[in-house]
Amino acid sequence: MDIKSELRKSWIIMMKEFKQIFRKKMLIIPLFMFPIIMIVFFGYGMGGSIKNVDILIVNDDTGMASSSLVQEIGSYIPKDSDIKMFSITYTKDMAQSEAERKIDAGLYKAVLIIPQDYSERVAKNESVTLTLLTDSSDTTSSGIIVNFMQQLLAKTRSISLNVPEIYGNLKYLDFLTPAVIALTIFFGTVQSTGYAIAGEREDGTIVRILMTPVSKWAVILGKTIHQLILQLIRAVILILGATVILGVTMNGSWLLVALVLTIFTFGSVGLGIAISAISEDMTSFQQLSLFFTLPSMFATGVFYPLSSVPDWMRWIAYTMPLTYANDAMRIIMVKGQGLSFIARDIFILIIFGVLYFAIGVHLFRREA
Question: Which of 88, 184, 207, 320 shows the smallest number of beta carbons within 10 Å?
Fold first, then answer.
């Protein structure tokens, strides 16, 4: 065997592989940028602290002790941050039931109610109780807020904290599950739709189908209906499994869950079609789809609240439909709220769905 000749041939094969990669223009960006993007989202997303959290303080006391307490809460900056933990709004004469409605509407993450005789009781070293209402559907933020308040009030033994469970005794799984279901639907729809189209185009199946009397519209409609049915069945199985096996809360309407996931799946099908239409082969589709789907996992509040991420990352989250699907699913499953509470999320998901589907259909009709 001529070693020099074999090495020369190996060099030729290697150069051929590199040339093939660089001919696939849509593959180059995700191939080199994807690891950097994941490091950034992992690093900034898993910070574990919250900042500028909207909190309402209902202060019916006019004494110095309550003013000092409010000032201490409003000026607190966590050790691992240079930004205040809370963005405070003040009011008075608000009943607890009304404060709960403010949290239901998503206006505040917490409401602290200070009684009228707070300063007087503190001055006399008498026991006094503050009420802290939290949006416990976000178990991460709620836990951090409660822990901070307990540590703050522990300095004065006469002060106790009452934390009513608005939505029941929730766990992190209750916060996580609705978003994981939405994430699973998103991943599954984009991947399976794209694999079907890109794979069929690569092996020539799609060309043979389009040579029959079946139109491109019929192909798209058939694949869309298939995904809608498949993903709804998956969602039902996931929710039932989570509630029965893990004891996850399901307080809301199954019909609303179906509505949200149907609209969301529709848009995800469009995205899958669009990515597959611009992909030259299965390898390109795999890289491109990960470029779109995996960052959504870490930028849209699946595993941690958006209040814990930098502002620039939060703005990116607002451009992703998974953010609104997560929010709607948590409002339904954890809070048990109705259609009016998720109307904004549904409206935005419809816009995304129509946009993605229109782009996907246009690209498919042009490329197929």
Answer: 207
Confirm if 356 and 193 have CB atoms less than 8 A apart: no
Tokens read off for 357: 């589907």
What CATH architecture applies to the domain 53-162? 3-Layer(aba) Sandwich (3.40)
Six-digit token pair at 14?
């290697």
Q: Read off the pLDDT of residues 333-361 as tens digits, 9 standing for 90 and up.
A: 988 888 989 999 999 999 998 998 888 87
User: What DSSP string describes 100-125?
Assistant: HHHHHTTS-SEEEEE-TTHHHHHHTT
User: Structural domain boundaries of the chain?
Assistant: 53-162, 172-367
Distance (Å, whole) CA 354 – CA 357: 5
Cα dist. 132→55, 99, 105, 109, 175 in Å? 10, 10, 17, 11, 20
Q: What is the pLDDT of residue 138?
A: 81
pTM of the model: 0.75
Instruction: Give the model's confidence band at 205: pLDDT under 50 very low, under 70 low, under 90 confident, else very high.
Output: low
